[in-house]
Amino acid sequence: MSEPSARARRIQEVIPGVWRWFVLDDRIDSESDAHAVVEDGRTTLIDPLPVAAAALQRLGPIAAICLTAKCHQRSAWRYRTQFGVKVYAPAGVRPMEEDADVWYRAGDRLPGGLQAIHTPGPEEVHYGFLLAREPGVFFCPDLLMHGKGKVEFVPADFHADPAATYDSVRRLLELRFSVLCFNHGAPITQDPHAALRDLLQRTVKPPVG
Q1: Whose CB among 28, 164, 177, 185 lies 3.0–4.6 Å from 121's, allowing a Cys bridge?
Q2: Is pLDDT above 70 for 178?
């Protein structure tokens, strides 16, 4: 099964309209995070993890589910059935437990005001989501993790192409956002670009291929 066994008890507001919850994920023996975006009273779940029903109800009507990659199916299929909504997933992804309702590509606009940003490295079909409305939020999948006070690359063992991961992170500096949310770790709400530049400066780019 793609879901971790743990269930979050509460949901935290990152900034108005953007929410986060997390669990100790027994599948990887580490923290995993999920997010939601509320726009016009309708909620889009991003790589959703199990969460208490009472906490989820705080977000209002669930309108859609958006997945960044195959490895983040998590609770998507159960919530699709529960809420009767569509699941959006990247075109060309390796076979998942179930088929998405909508297949997106780089640059596509998704529910919740999200834009799909191609971030290859962990695997070729791997995306982040940019929420352009102020103050700007980037939802970063398995490129990076945030723990112990600093940003790190997800270990290279989990990346099909670590050099491509490095380049994907470098390209994030070209995007306009003030909040950086992670699939593994707490968000950065103060100058995330500085944290990315620091990471790139102290990391040697892996060899290509």
Answers
A1: 164
A2: yes
